[in-house]
Amino acid sequence: MSMHSTIADSIKIDRPADPLSLPALTLAYLGDTVYDLYVRTALAENLRLPMRALHLEAAKHVCAAGQAAAYRRIADQLSESEQAAFRRGRNAHSATVPKHADVRDYRVATGLEALLGHLYLLGEDERIGELMHLALQIEPEKEPES
User: What is the mean pLDDT of residues 80-103?
Assistant: First the structure.
């Protein structure tokens, strides 16, 4: 990048065709954002809560334990290539693990994020939607009966 170019100048809109060309933790970095977006969208669509309550509910899902639980709900639905993308992320070694997270949950969460990053880069948005629907299982709020 030259001294006069900006980060925006270096950003490509097209998704790379081969997620295998990126490190597993880079896939997890992207997948973390995908996961967060789906969680927040599902909560906003299904729960009529004040903003602080929505944030607290999102925090239950967007943490190592919440993501590990989400992975367990979809594990038996994954193709061989999806399982490989998950394992690649799970087995990647991060320099740190949050002190409040269980190491096993953190590794599973990283695997899930890498899987989502992998699918995102392949343009598999419909598949991401299917998996996230199963993973989140967020129940809509029931209307009070009159």
Answer: 90
